[in-house]
User: Which sequence fits this backbone?
């Protein structure tokens, strides 16, 4: 890896020391919890009746040693500090992350593994182990200068926090859902009904909300003092940032602009997303799962929603924030953002491939000597395959799914509700399909009609 970065400084190392000290405190409390709840091992390496918390105590002590090493570092020793990620690991991660095909494939695979192994990682101990691994990974990654420049930007710090919050609430949902699924299978009452307690708005709810408000206000004050505001130089039409990015909550839409025309990525798809969310109560015919956490009763709805939210939305935000760099190129998370990096791309339209590559002819185009009908005919002739594919995708696939994989759903929902649902699913699937077509075939537009400013 070519180095464009200064070495580690004492301030960075000591900052990581405070992170490991915080992690030590968290695991110290977890060790006490493990001692009280996890019991003992009957035999381990010849020793009898060993508390399971012993392993956590060893790990907690190791964290204290690591924190002490970081906090007591000398300025002269910072240059040769060895507790950092090796170059071979960073190069391997960069080669994976910087390739959008591998990135998206791993995102989908991780989503599938998350759902498939939900009964394992929702348990307290595996979940705590995953949290520790995530924090240690971020801490070790902060020893890389380029990673710090990306993650440490004031604009990007909240996104890192959002990822941890997203992981926590995903765990919370699946842990509650798995427990309720087990209760229903055993004929027991739901957790929500068994533990339901009625409380008054005043003082119970208002008191809880007041405590949360005070804590959140204190957090925002500390945040505002400790973290510099992301204020840059005044805007100029002749000097734009490279890369020029939207706010984090629009990065998913900005990423879609890579694969779709602005009218589609900026208008049509967002309206379909909002309309689809509003239509959920009207197209949902499943009476189960209302008012309580569950997965088995609503597998289809949960999987569709989470796939659209995690890989296709949060994944696109992560990609747009940490991987899209200058000139909108893809960079590894440990890679220097070189403004001179240029990737040669030769994206072509489907009509170019049909007429030029396959038929060996020039593209039909409307000319000045054609009347209006002849010009329209030339455009439709040029784009006939793309138009046929789009119409078939939206008009032929829904009935085909209705008589095959969605047959029972079609019978229960009826024609109108089923067609709304089927088209919403197809529009959601259109994004990963278009991404795959771009990555593997350099396909820019399926239908390209610049004469009408209409491209798909």
Assistant:
């Amino acid at each position: 890896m070519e180095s464009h970065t200064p070495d580690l400084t004492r301030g960075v190392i000591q900052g990581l020391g405070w992170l490991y000290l915080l992690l030590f405190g968290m695991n110290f409390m977890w060790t006490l919890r493990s001692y009280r709840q996890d019991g003992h091992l009957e035999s381990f390496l010849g020793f009898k009746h060993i508390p399971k918390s012993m392993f956590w105590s060893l790990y907690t002590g190791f964290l204290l040693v690591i924190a002490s090493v970081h906090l007591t570092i000398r300025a002269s020793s910072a240059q040769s500090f060895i507790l950092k990620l090796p170059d071979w690991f960073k190069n391997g991660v960069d080669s994976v992350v910087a390739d959008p095909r591998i990135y998206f494939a791993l995102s989908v695979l991780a989503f599938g593994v998350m759902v498939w192994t939900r009964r394992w990682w929702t348990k307290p101990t595996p979940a705590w182990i995953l949290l520790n691994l995530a924090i240690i990974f971020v801490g070790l990654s902060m020893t890389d200068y380029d990673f710090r420049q990306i993650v440490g930007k004031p604009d990007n710090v909240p996104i890192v926090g959002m990822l941890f919050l997203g992981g926590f609430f995903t765990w919370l949902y699946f842990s509650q859902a798995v427990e309720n699924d087990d209760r229903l299978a055993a004929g027991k009452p739901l957790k929500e009904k068994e533990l339901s307690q009625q409380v008054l708005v005043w003082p119970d709810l208002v008191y809880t909300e007041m405590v949360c408000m005070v804590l959140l206000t204190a957090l925002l004050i500390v945040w505002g003092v400790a973290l510099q505001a992301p204020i840059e130089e005044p805007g100029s039409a002749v000097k734009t940032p490279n890369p020029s990015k939207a706010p984090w909550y629009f990065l998913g839409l900005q990423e879609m602009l890579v694969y779709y025309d602005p009218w589609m990525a900026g208008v049509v798809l967002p309206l379909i997303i909002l309309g689809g969310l509003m239509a959920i109560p009207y197209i949902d015919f499943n009476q189960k799962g209302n008012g309580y956490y569950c997965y088995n009763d609503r597998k289809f709805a949960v999987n569709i929603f989470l796939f659209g939210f995690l890989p296709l939305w949060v994944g696109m935000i992560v990609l747009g924030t940490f991987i899209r760099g200058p000139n909108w190129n893809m960079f590894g998370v440990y890679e220097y953002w070189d403004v001179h990096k240029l990737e040669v791309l030769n994206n072509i339209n489907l009509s170019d491939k049909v007429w030029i590559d396959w038929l060996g002819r020039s593209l039909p185009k409307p000319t000045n000597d054609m009347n209006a009908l002849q010009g329209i005919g030339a455009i439709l002739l040029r784009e006939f395959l793309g138009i046929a594919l789009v119409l078939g995708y939206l008009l032929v696939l829904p009935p085909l799914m209705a008589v095959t994989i969605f047959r029972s759903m079609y019978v229960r929902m009826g024609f109108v509700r089923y067609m709304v649902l089927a088209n919403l699913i197809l529009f959601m699937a259109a994004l990963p399909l278009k991404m795959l077509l771009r990555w593997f075939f350099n396909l820019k537009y399926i239908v390209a009609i610049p004469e009408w400013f209409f491209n798909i």
Remarks:
- The radius of gyration is 27 Å.
- The mean pLDDT is 88.
- The longest helix spans residues 157-185.
